[in-house]
Amino acid sequence: MRDKHPLSGSLFLSVLLLSLCMVIPLSAQDDSASLNADKLLKDALLFSVDVDVTSPDGDSQLWNTRVEKITIPGRAVEVSLEGDDSKLKVNFTLYPAEDGKLLLVARSETWVGGEYSSALSSLPVLYRDEVYYYPLGRAEDGDDDSPVEVRMSINVIPYLETLDDAARDTLESAFNSSAQFDLSGEDP
């Protein structure tokens, strides 16, 4: 039989007590953390953008994709397109505005060859309304230098509205539940 070190039992007890001392303040904050998680869920947004790259005359679609991200107001969503010697990066950030509206701020950065340009735009947005953003400008505006037109169709929906009742209940339950562990070492 193996000899036990005389401090091993007290060491385990000390670690357990120290762990409990650390858990007690955390559990006291559990209600506020739960409220913050609930607020986070209520503020969460589904940000969808359909990206279409077409020839300047609009006759042929060269590339398209759909990007969906879950975000919160004030947190940027980045969409980036890269070619052989070019790159387009757009950061979209939503901010709450008056009357339940949102302000969409778009920061575009473009690298073509060795040239760099940037632009900052802001657009008022309503939930569920489609907004079009052209980070390189519109081809019909007469810019013959642009080899393509990039159109971004943006839609913003409160994230919880995208879930069915069962998924919504499961998600809310996951944020508001607690876990309990038995460290006594005894089998249940």
**What is the percent of helical residues?**
25-40%
Shape: elongated
Mean pLDDT over the full residue set: 79
Portion in beta strands:
35-45%
The total strand number stands at 8
Question: What does the radius of gyration come to?
Answer: 26 Å
Whole-number count of domains: 2
Q: Roughly how many Å apart are the termini?
A: 26 Å
The major pleated sheet works out as: 4 strands, antiparallel
Write the H/E string, N to C. HHEEEEEEEEH
Strand order of the largest sheet: 2-1-8-7
Number of continuous helical runs? 3
Low-pLDDT ranges: 5-9, 11-30
Structural class, from secondary structure content?
Answer: alpha+beta
What does this structure look like?
A hairpin with a 2-residue loop joins strand 5 and strand 6. The protein starts with 7 loop residues before the first helix and ends in a 12-residue tail after the last helix. The longest helix has 21 residues. The chain has 188 residues and is of the alpha+beta class. The protein is elongated. The chain is 25% helix and 39% strand. The strands form two sheets. The chain has a four-stranded antiparallel β-sheet, with no helix packed on it. The protein folds into two domains: 34 residues, no CATH class; 118 residues, no CATH class. The chain contains three helices and eight strands. The relative contact order is 0.16.
Walk me through the topology.
Layout: H1 8-28, H2 30-43, E1 45-54, E2 61-71, E3 77-82, E4 86-96, E5 102-112, E6 115-125, E7 131-133, E8 149-158, H3 165-176
What keyword list fits this structure?
188 residues; alpha+beta; 2 domains; 4-stranded antiparallel beta sheet; 3 helices; 8 strands; 25% helix
